[in-house]
Every structure is written in structure tokens, then in C-alpha cells.
């Protein structure tokens, strides 16, 4: 049992050794010796710390590293990948990779046959993945998603091997070029970020203008990468899910007028009813009735007093941290709001709700009805 801090530190060191030196074909006995344990005790302690056995951990790390090698090294062979992750038998590696990743290495490498990097403050990798293409580089927000490598959890597994660019900082052209992209998909960048990249002539930069609908991005990206035939099927599946959720929530959404807010640490954002992928989903697709005095599009920063004066029947809180909502809920003005007094405030767990791509939209819809109906707040 790992109770001594020094034992925990030793186990963390072993985990780091395993991760950093995958080409070394370690045995359980060798690893156990490093922490002065017998193999049985070591395996038990490791599983308690990591939730899986040392063998399972090594396999998972080797598959993850193999994906990165395949995506980040142009022209690498299956045999070279196998050797670099500590597996001498190329054919055993191929079988294991297919078992764990769902496709053999030769097929997996075709996910990045054309090497595409995404330079954007949006998760456009969602569209590429839905179209069957894995980008070699894509944006991430490490402070927003610290436990899943800077991306929502529903994208994490499919982006193993992709170099994640920190979108919370200024994009560095040198970092992008290290991934050897054949083509770059780029949107306009805000907050004063660079609007052009100094790239060699062989690099093709596709500039994608801002759009107000998620499927406009999907259609343009599909056209750029030659996957137009997949668009109809993706859109049809999303439409089917939208209709199912709309029908299920109809008794709730049709009674009263709604407002959507995002409670941030220093401000409250009151959202409009169109020109935003999630607001269009709520008000146009799922049948929510917007309050009469909402802004048409975008959002307004409002005070709690202004929010109370709105007299909305129902209030939906999105993307907010519980501590910020709790602080707001202690104010007298909040407690005077009609939706609060009528107990018509809804606060679903929406931290990972990103409706701008088909995978994110599908995630929202598949869990929306259940999540939403359980999110009613009866007391603060």
C-alpha cells in the first residue's frame, strides 16, 4: 500500500521513466527492483496509483506514442514506429495497434495523408475528425481543459498524436512548421494576434472567414479537403438528434420565455437569440422561446439589477463555474428575480459544450435532455 510520501514519489518516478523511455523493453521485475518491491507488490501498488496494471499502462503509452510518431514524422514506416516504442516484432505491434486504435498502422497513417494544421481560436479539428482526417496541429486551451490536454474530453482520444497549439498564447509560426503541414486552415484571430503567418511558398494557407452556423464551417472545410460526400450524412444525423431532443423537451421549452447567461468572475453576459451556434440550437432547433428584450445577436454585459429587471420566466446558466454562480446568488437582486422566485433556473454542467463542430454538437444533443432536466436549481 502506498502511504509513505516517499513511496508515492518513487512510483511517480517509475511512471515518468516508463513514459520517457518507451523504447526500452522493461520487464515488471526490472521496474519492481527500482522501487525495492517484489513484482506482485509492485503490480498491486501501481494499479492502486494508476487504476491499471503496469503492462496495461505501458501498452497504452506505447500506442499513444506510436500515434504521435505516425502523425509527426512524415514517411515513417511501421517497423520504425514499432522499434521506437520498444517493440521488436513489427507484426505483433501492428496487431496490437489495430486492437487498441481500431485500425492497422497503415490505415491510421492515412488519417494524416495530407498534413493539415489548424491555426484558429476555434476547435475546427472537430470538423476534420468528423470528416475522417486527423490534423497534425490544432488549437488547445490548457487552462480551460487542464485534465484532457487542453481540449474537451470528447476530442482527447481522437487527437492523440496531434501537436496541440496553446491558443491562450500567440501562435508561433516556427511551432506550426515543425509539424510539416502541407496545408494550414486558418481563421481570423482576435485579441491582437498575428493575422498572417510567414511561411514558405510550398505552404498553402486556406483562410476561412467567420460564419454564424456550425455547418457552414463543415461544408467549407469538407470542400477544401475533398470530403463533400460525408457532409449530408453528418448533417442528417445531427438533424435527427435535434428533432428527438426538441420533441422530448417540448412541454418544458414552450412554457414561458427564456434568457441565457454566462456568469463570469467579473461580469454577467446576457446572450441574444441568433448568430451563435448554441443559441441557434436552443432557439431555432430545440424550440426554446426567447424573452422579448434579449439582444438580437452577440451578448450584452449586464448587472444583476438589469438582469432582474428583465423579468424572464426561465433562466439558463451556461459555461459558468459554480463558485461564480453561488457568489451571485447571495445578492438581494438575484433573489428578487422572477425566474429565481419561481424556481425556474437551470444550471447544467456545460463546461465542455462546444456546438461549433459536429462532434461537439452531437455530444450536447446525446446528453442534453437528461442533463437539462436534472439541472433545475431549487435552492442556492
Automatic annotation (TrEMBL):
<feature type="domain" description="Fe/B12 periplasmic-binding">
    <location>
        <begin position="116"/>
        <end position="376"/>
    </location>
</feature>
<dbReference type="InterPro" id="IPR009057">
    <property type="entry name" value="Homeodomain-like_sf"/>
</dbReference>
<dbReference type="InterPro" id="IPR018060">
    <property type="entry name" value="HTH_AraC"/>
</dbReference>
<keyword id="KW-0238">DNA-binding</keyword>
<keyword id="KW-0805">Transcription regulation</keyword>
<keyword id="KW-0804">Transcription</keyword>
<dbReference type="InterPro" id="IPR002491">
    <property type="entry name" value="ABC_transptr_periplasmic_BD"/>
</dbReference>
<feature type="domain" description="HTH araC/xylS-type">
    <location>
        <begin position="12"/>
        <end position="111"/>
    </location>
</feature>
<protein>
    <submittedName>
        <fullName>Transcriptional regulator</fullName>
    </submittedName>
</protein>
<dbReference type="Pfam" id="PF12833">
    <property type="entry name" value="HTH_18"/>
</dbReference>
<dbReference type="GO" id="GO:0003700">
    <property type="term" value="F:DNA-binding transcription factor activity"/>
</dbReference>
<dbReference type="Pfam" id="PF01497">
    <property type="entry name" value="Peripla_BP_2"/>
</dbReference>
<dbReference type="GO" id="GO:0043565">
    <property type="term" value="F:sequence-specific DNA binding"/>
</dbReference>
